[in-house]
Amino acid sequence: MSPENATPPSGENGSRSRLGGDGGWPRWTIFVLLAVVGGAVLLQFIASSSTSTSINYGDFISKLSGDQVAEATFDNSNGHISGKLDDGSSFTTTGPLQLSDADQSLFIDKGVTYDTPSQSIWGTLIPLLLPVLLLIGFFMWMQKRASGGMGNIMSIGRSRAKTYDAERPATTFDDVAGYEGVKTDVTEVVDFLKHPEKFSEIGARIPKGVLLVGPPGTGKTLIARAVAGEAGVPFLSVTGSDFMEMFVGVGASRVRDLFQNARKLGRAIIFIDEIDSIGRKRGAGLGGGHDEREQTLNQMLSEMDGFEVSTGIVMIAATNRPDILDPALLRPGRFDRQVVVPLPELDDRRRILEVHVKHKRIAPDVDLDLVARGTPGMSGADLSNLVNEAALFAVRSGESEIHRRNFEEARDRILMGQRRESMALSDLEKEAIAYHEAGHAVCAAVLPTADPLHKVTIIPSGMALGVTMQLPTEERHIYRQDYIEDSLVVRMGGRIAESLVFDVVSTGANNDLVGATELARKMVREWGMSNRVGPMAWGQQGQVFLGEDLMHSRDYSDDTARVIDEEVERILREAQDRCRELLTENRNGLDLVARALLEHETIDGGEVTRLLELAQPGSTSANPNRAAATSAPSLGEPIDVGSLPHTDHTEL
Which of 274, 303, 437, 498 is catalytic? Predict the structure, then answer.
């Protein structure tokens, strides 16, 4: 369903219609009034400016006495005298309204014509009424403006939800690629809205609220619209921020108006996007019970609680922060059903890619199965961006189709940033970066449980000066301790390689150390992978919001904190010692990989494995999955589940 089919919110354009001409003053009225006034002034100026010569009254009497005036007309209403002289020139002058006896006798003797114009009432009233009419018009216009402003204020409590008509083409489940499990969960809502009698006969009650929970970009809004399209009912869409205003009580009023509009439609779906903006936990210490957000939430809870039966109305909300929602919002009778919309799996990514490449020219060498396999952890929005970036790279290259290498370049751009090939690095810096990335690559290729190596490059990209990428052979959902420990060794590879070759360390390992420390701390505090701490999970401090936990407090003693720090240090030092031993044993291979990087700048995982075998054939058991790395697709990016990033890069 396109946005053009949406019905504008009620009350949104009320003031606009008042000021635009529906019962109000048109904009051209002021220009007409200005034109009338200007015309009157111009006519007066034209009338006053003539070719007649102005003379004084004394000269006129002298010329009249000397028979130099051919004709003259005296206006006894204002004393104006006009006429012609004997030489044919016109003249004007002004005499007294009450002529003296001598002048009056002279005028009679010389045949001066007396003119007494008839006075028109309009000629007298118009000059007086015109300013009054202008003032009345101005005050009426100001009154219209004021009434329009009051209309805005009176309509501020109306809902801003966009209503999509069910009679027009709508989004259906066929438009949602993948997510079969999610579709199954929400199909029951569709059946209830289509056939409510089946549920009422048996006494079943459909959940009033369905909460879609998932990371950003996974298509929660699209799924909600598909539910409305499948059910064939009106769809009211609104975001949580639309309820918030500077006036207290506006949000609650808009909630009431939203439910009233839904009841008028009969069966309908109300969709609230980003509900966490108004549904956060109450009583957090700031604002008290009169906070605008809390009043809005209270009104929503009361509307959903059943004070008035809302048969046929289902609420669907979306959020990526379910942990901060108020418990009263999630209890049975309100949003009692949560549907998780996770990141797409391999098959889902394949179907999503098919949707996004449908109207694009794709070259025959593009295999969407390989693209889907090489993009784990990407959401639907990320995949859409990937296809668009690949199309942009194809256009920049002057190609008429999108090729496989364009997807490779797009993936690198999204994950690592724009390549900075023009960045000037000294020979010493290039050598240090080459050995740093070679250290990561050798550890990834040799360790038995590490993900297979995909590609190593020393071309600066984004904020990174070099990147080592690993491609998992399968999507992981849980992580074993030996896998995490090998991941720590891979992270230490760059720092230890610099120490072995140059006998000094640099700032290039900053990103590696931050990630390794965070990973080791999770092992001790959250995953129970330390014998000294034992099977205890202390968790991570949550973010402060709405005044909650303004004063951070630990739930363990200082002695326990010291033990945790000691265990984190032990894990990191053991990983460092293992890494040093591994790189010392494979020193020849480290040199070969670094030289290859200096010569070619980018090499793949298969080339790293070949160089290691060439340097020390049969001396070290390499990763059994390196064959998979050699035949891995050109698109690959590690899964980032559980805060376990696999992409290591050098930073200076």
Answer: 437
